[in-house]
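Lab notebook, bench 4. The sequencing result for the construct came back, and we need a structural model before the next group meeting so we can plan mutations. Quick request posted to the team channel:

Model the 3D structure of this chain.
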Amino acid sequence: NPYVNLGINFRYFFVRKTMFVKYAQGFVVVPGGFGTLDELFEALTLIQTQRMKPVPFLLFGRDFWHQIVNWQALADAGTISASDLDLIRFVETSDEAIAAIDAWQAPPPPKTR
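Done. Here's the predicted structure in token form:
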């Protein structure tokens, strides 16, 4: 990849995934396969469970992602909360992605009992 100026190799995949999210200031996810889905759900779960601070989470290509996952059905079934749908935003162009990142504001912290 000509854009990588510092390559890092990992022996174990879980270490790679840990480093993937540790320093992330946002996620822009393009259509992909099993690895993409694995990393997408890993990062979303960490944000959902408050193990990672909220960051912009953009999915390129609404049609693709809606074919892969019925996001609303997950909320309707109660397997995620309706507010979890607010963790992601769908974008169609790089300009839209940049605008979404520039406009992003962290949600307020959840209320504790």
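The chain is about 40% helix and 10% strand.
Will bring this to the meeting.
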